[in-house]
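Journal club prep — side note

Before the paper discussion, L.F. wants everyone to see what a predicted structure for a comparable chain looks like in token form. Sequence:
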Amino acid sequence: MKPKRALSNIYIALIMLFLYAPMLVMVVFSFNGTSSTGVLDGFSTKWYGELLKDSVTLQALTNTLILAVTSSLIAMVLGTAAAVGIHSMKKKWLKTSVLTVTNIPMVNPEIVTGVSMMLLFVFVGRLVGKSDVLGFPTLLIAHVTFSLPYVILSVLPKLRQTDRHLGEAAQDLGCPPVTAFFKVILPNISSGIITGLIMAFTLSLDDFIISYFVSGPKFQTLPIVIFSMTKKKVKPDMYALSTLIFLAVLLLLVLMNIMQARAEKKEKKAQSARL
């Protein structure tokens, strides 16, 4: 058993190295003293200073954060409402059909989604007499669209774990249906909602293919700006920015795991108290 365990540990270590080695290299070169990607010339934070002077990159970062926050919040609200609606469906065939349709944006190739949405927006723009329809509104609609399934799939398991009679019990005690949902059901599914919100935020932050097709010249996201730099040469301050984004997302995931662990402990304590 020991040789098998050692081999499995080596296998896992190689996978982790394969996944995280590029990011570690990026972090190291963000502190490189020169712009070379092949020679390390001492420790320096000058690229972080150069990043603060790059107005184009900072504007693209601001646009990306505004888009990610707005689209994730809208997707969270719509996705939670959709998950509650799907969960309350009585007919099994209808629920299965709706879930299948909901999952299409997840399995559909992004380039197909991007091209089809671009054609739709341009067609609608011509109907209303607008030629420059692509911009922040089209980006927002696209990001909400591909984020919704992930929010729904994060909330649905929590709804299945929640006792169906909790809402009915709250209404029997005098709560209106809406108040019962917000005071009884919502706290029980809050961890799934937060997970869906974080997933929607990171997906929006990362997306390039769909954004490339539905964005206009007046509103550029960070992935699109970085892609335009690859035609010449990526400046080292992009390593610094990518490092900061990586650390921010890592911190966000750690906080999410801590919150989930605390929620699970509370649930176990509540269950043991009932028993």
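L.F.'s comment for the group: The longest helix spans residues 237-274. Keep this in mind when we get to the figures.
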